[in-house]
Structures
1.
Amino acid sequence: MTTIKDIAKVAGVSVTTVSRALNGYSDVNEATRKKIMDVAKELNYSPNTLARSLVMNKSKTIGLLVSGLNEGAVKDNFTFEVLSGVNQYVSDSDYDLILFSTNSTKQREKTYSQLCKERRVDGAIIQGIRTDDPYLQEVVESNIPCVLIDIPIETETVGYVTTNNRQGAQKAVDHLIRLGHQNIAMINGHEFAVVSQERLKGYQDALKVANIEFNPDWVVNGDFNEEAAEKVALKLIESNPEISAIFCASDLMALGVMKVARRLNIRIPEQLSIVGYDDILLASYVSPPLTTVAQNKFQMGYEAAKMLIHTLEGKDEPHVKTLDTDLKIRETTKKFNKN
Amino acid sequence: MTTIKDIAKVAGVSVTTVSRALNGYSDVNEATRKKIMDVAKELNYSPNTLARSLVMNKSKTIGLLVSGLNEGAVKDNFTFEVLSGVNQYVSDSDYDLILFSTNSTKQREKTYSQLCKERRVDGAIIQGIRTDDPYLQEVVESNIPCVLIDIPIETETVGYVTTNNRQGAQKAVDHLIRLGHQNIAMINGHEFAVVSQERLKGYQDALKVANIEFNPDWVVNGDFNEEAAEKVALKLIESNPEISAIFCASDLMALGVMKVARRLNIRIPEQLSIVGYDDILLASYVSPPLTTVAQNKFQMGYEAAKMLIHTLEGKDEPHVKTLDTDLKIRETTKKFNKN
DNA sequence: GTGAAAGCGCTAACAA
DNA sequence: TTGTTAGCGCTTTCAC
């Protein structure tokens, strides 16, 4: 592997000059530069970013901490879409992306900030971790610039991008109310997700506006998980036959509810209306197609990367970005009809 | 950021000793080691992998070159599943993954091997690039160990994992033949994918066994693309009404064909049988559920990572891994019925 | 069992 | 415009 030293020798100059020439500094004679460039090409030179990073004290890498990068996440490819968005922005910059997957056993050995510090990443994007994750706090308090997805923490070095979850949920429930539903249950994620808290508020907002009393027994957690949602939905439906609509905090859970309904011979949407959240790919393909609150996951990733890199480049940008959601009315919701 | 120098100072030893202690060498006094460990913890030390990599001349990173990491790839999340598999294996090793996305404009500026060399990756996994990619050859010829996915090149430092495409295709077509179909068309990908070449052979194999003459006009390319497949399928079906079954080299293309059939009021599977390839998530969700040849994309990634890391660790492993496919018979195929 | 010193490939004062 | 020198944080001979 050729180094600038080799080039210097062949070109008959010092390494400094080589370095300057290669990095496009102006204070180098054009003839010298050309010579150096030629030699570099001839020797098939590649700069060693490791050495450069070491001395410059920045690595031009950004760490992507994700937790949903596993086999089970295929159905709900939230993580993938965010990753695509991140990648889209990053690949047009001169940064590279290093992946820290935290679903493995390794996460217990090393904290997020350790991973970042060891690799000397310039910044990090964090997605899919729970608010009760013991290492979240730590990475936020380290002075590594980071952008969180769906976790509203804002400091000097920390920003976040999220969507308007409260409003999104409200739209969904409002839609059900307009269809005449009064007995609307909610299957939420879990308490350690800010989005769950927000979506619950949106649900309550909508009820309030319509003067419908909030019944806490009708809100249960399905852990953002299809099977768990099935279980809680089953119990909910069986013990509260008056429920005519269910708002789910994720599409995956909505799919679980649809399964249960099918099993119980409850027709959707005639007997039960369902609204999901996310607009995953499957939402428009299941039968009947799922009414849901769409969030642009790709854009979330894109904006996160943009925010982070802008911060790293010293551009003084807002540290918060909230995207809008979009209610997609499909075929799992219908006018209430009391049989 | 604390360095071993800081630790040495506080612990009252030399940097050499610190290095040895931290790296678990045996020739260091237990008391000294303990002291050093304590100081390291106290100072919240993180090793600088950049410096280490520089001197050791290996980075403990593996590069992942993919081309399908963009918004459009959501439906056909082949890339994502492979990535998950890679990640699964890698995250249980002490390597990290660095993502080189090549769909961007950047790919034209820097070749794959340049990317790899600059970042000093120890090895690379390459997925989703075409055999006519000008930079493929280059990276293969560089002496960077790499594992290719679905490109059968084998050298001292290059291996690959793939599935048995020929057999998979044969199974699919054989299935159609057993159902009584004689006029079976194929929508292939493109000529710069080895899998397309192989699947075509499998198609021909099946015909041959059944003594059905091969008609080259009935094999058209859809570029692994839903829209393109729609177009070619339309032409194919309209000008050859005798075709009763179509084998597609990807599920995405099969979806395109299904769309066309719907538009032409051709009932599936009654009037037209369709077999796809891949078994993407949607395959089992579309209506009717798609009969297809399943390949385990997650495992492909997993095996690729395993092969690469084993190679890097000097384990002498076979450089080729061929996985089996699995014909999933669902509801787009039916006994031929000449009306 | 420990330390001094060299060096990995690069950048950046400072001097000439 | 160019070169000398030091140093980024680490590992590794080699000597003690």
Note: Residues 13-17, 20, 27-29, 32, 51, 53-57 of chain A lie near DNA strand D (CB under 10 Å from a C1').
2.
Amino acid sequence: MADLARELGVSMTTISRALSDHHSIGPAMKQKVLKLAKKYNYQPNRLASALRKGKSQLLGIVVPYIEGRFFPSVVHGIETAASRAGYNVIICQSNEDVAQERRNLDILLSAQVAGILVSLSRTTHDFRHFEKVRSRGLPLVFFDRIVEGDNVNAVVLDDQEGGYVSTRHLLNQGCRRIAHLAGPQHLNIYKNRRQGYLDALREAGLPEDESLILYSDMAQDQGAEGMRQLLALPSAPDAVFAAGDYCALGALQEAHRQGLRVPEDVAIAGFSNETFTVITQPPITTIDQRCEEMGQAAVRLLLEIIEADGRPFTPRQVALRPELLVRGSSDRLPAVPAGPLRDPSAKFIGTLA
Amino acid sequence: MADLARELGVSMTTISRALSDHHSIGPAMKQKVLKLAKKYNYQPNRLASALRKGKSQLLGIVVPYIEGRFFPSVVHGIETAASRAGYNVIICQSNEDVAQERRNLDILLSAQVAGILVSLSRTTHDFRHFEKVRSRGLPLVFFDRIVEGDNVNAVVLDDQEGGYVSTRHLLNQGCRRIAHLAGPQHLNIYKNRRQGYLDALREAGLPEDESLILYSDMAQDQGAEGMRQLLALPSAPDAVFAAGDYCALGALQEAHRQGLRVPEDVAIAGFSNETFTVITQPPITTIDQRCEEMGQAAVRLLLEIIEADGRPFTPRQVALRPELLVRGSSDRLPAVPAGPLRDPSAKFIGTLA
DNA sequence: TTGTAAGCGTTATCAC
DNA sequence: GTGATAACGCTTACAA
């Protein structure tokens, strides 16, 4: 910058203003500066700028890990939304370890990020380290694995809605005995999916039948085992809603082993839209978790807080509407003319309980 | 820092030295400073430090996107290795767009990163924007999608070796007519996998039979179609080496449709270790691309260059040894006692051609 | 519209 | 072993 100033015989102030498009700068001057900057291949130093302004163009992400289908997609969404807004992203993994999570927060604080996005590690039960962030006035948004409560900013998938629409769909296909392969009920996601399932049944006037609900850890072979048990019932179900795709896959494979046709004899639906659900035969109906939208929604919320710039901001919890993907494993009706397109943008459903 | 200095009645210099563990500092003083820093919850400002030192603790990553199985795993490996070495990582996506890739490089330059890791966008055919990086003396390492040549630092998977070990394995299983579902030969990865396949055949004294090599874009249905064609041959193959897992899956499904047993009637092997290969029945033998090791190897190389600190560094190309994962789709022999464990560390095989 | 000068938080240099 | 001071590159009152 000093070079440019010297060469043009103006002050660095003018250079700075021209480069950052300040209002009180002559268009002529601006052009000259920009041209010379290009010629000299001038690279602004964001460190210096951030240091002076006390605000960087960096957002921090803390995730348990960058593997599998979910987190990479969310990070993808975050990076995309952030860079669109002129921010870049520092990414940290906690490896499901609170201590590491704490360290990551410290690092992000000292990197002077403008805001932080966090999905909690599985071992985080004490949330005091987030107080440090809050006390520094640093915008903070949780996603997916969140701190519960209405005094935090958070974005999650509406799992109950997911269980509900999935079960409704099976009902619409004419199924009347719908079993549920449920996950560990101490985890909110599985509890909510089950609740949505029950909601749909009740709404349809069907009885809640505990013999049709089987609990497991949702692994592939547990899905197979579940299906085996269900098919051995005096009156076997005509549909299975599994709270996870691996479990649904096991169920599908077991059904085939027993010579049943899917979806004619038994319809199957899973949850999560794992990559493999489209390559099975038939492909598996499932619920998309809108990973990317979750990332984008989290960034939107974070930017709102950043832009509030210290002014009081009422914490908000956003629940994303899950998307039902109807595929061969549950599609038993003749094709119907398509309805209006679903609005693909992330939805605010309401404040969480 | 100023506060600490005042409270202890010493200069900021002393504080700085105590905090950064400078040699000329009294252990007593050091303890006092550290204690007080803890009490006041002192957070170093890495921006200021980096500005002053002219070097940040940040590495930049540019990838086409963070989706699928490959890139997230590599990023995982990069972040893990980087944070172990005290670095953090800024991640940028090029979305397979050169222009964006160029912009990303500019951003990373202006963020004063200590080094850059790049996997090229598919639309990058002109490499001039990397000159800017080089001319600034900034350490640069390519991975997976690299600039060819021996004047760049690069880490790749040895695809030819992958094709070779895969085919060798099928030979060891007693197969003698081994077909190959090949990918587009203008892409190096597919060309190399095919070459490895041919190498193994030649080594075994088997003829190269072009009627057993089918070319496609490697999609699932193309794998099925390929298998159909192969099975219609006057003398059908007893094994298929597919250059991709989706293609292998299609082949597997088609074999089942035609009532063949896998691996008894026809053995199948894929490439990439996609997640779904373990959930099929039988699970699919494949080649692991060592994504995580690739990330780690790239960081190791980058750190070496960083530590050379401007001193001449001879560019190096590293080829990682792929790992054969033998699974049900090709395992036709009785189990053999396990040999010595394979060294799991990333391997330097040699300079690329 | 432009310039002057101070300062963001740290560290390297040089002197003591 | 410790301190004073300048400097890293940029922005922004305040003044002109």
Note: The longest strand of chain A covers residues 58-63.
